[in-house]
Each structure stands twice: as C-alpha cells, then as structure tokens.
Write a structure and sequence with these properties.
The chain is an all-alpha fold. The protein has helices at residues 10-25, 29-42, 47-54, 67-80. Helix 1 (10-25) packs antiparallel against helix 2 (29-42).
C-alpha cells in the first residue's frame, strides 16, 4: 500500500505550525497533536512513523481518528482546509 501524503501550501504549513504551538501553549494537547500529525504527514512521514513520533496507535494516525474514518478525514481536509470551510 502506498502512503497518502498531504500537500500543503507553504503559508498553510506555517499557519498549522503556529496553530499547533498555540494549541499546546493553551493546553489543548489533543488539537496540537492532530495538527502535528498533519504537519508531519505533509513533510513525508508515513502513518507508522507518525504513530511512533506521536506515541499513538497506528490505527489513530494521522488524524487521531479511527482508521476507518481517516480517509473521510483526508477528503474533508482536502475539501475544506484547516478552517473547516471551502476556500
């Protein structure tokens, strides 16, 4: 099976890094971890690598969603972007 990798515009990448740091600083660790998973995936990390780095089961990588829903999550991300609305 080939890994699915996200492609992010550089400005989107920077924004996600900033939001991840803000979430961690604000104590919203689950959000920070999900954003880190998206960032690492866009940098070429596979789900297995993400699971190891983020200390999460592979079935929950890269989004923290169960594996059966991760494809739907990727489609949603592609359609709506980080703000949850169409651009």
């Amino acid at each position: 099976m080939l890994p699915r990798l996200l492609r992010l515009h550089p400005a989107t990448h920077r924004r996600l890094v900033r939001l991840s740091k803000e979430a961690e600083r604000d104590g919203v660790y689950r959000v920070a971890k999900r954003l880190q998973a998206v960032i690492l995936n866009a940098e070429g990390r596979t789900s297995g690598e993400l699971a190891a780095v983020l200390k999460a089961p592979r079935s929950e990588s890269p989004s923290g969603c169960p594996a059966t829903r991760s494809s739907a999550w990727r489609v949603c991300w592609k359609d709506t972007g980080p703000d949850g609305r169409r651009h």
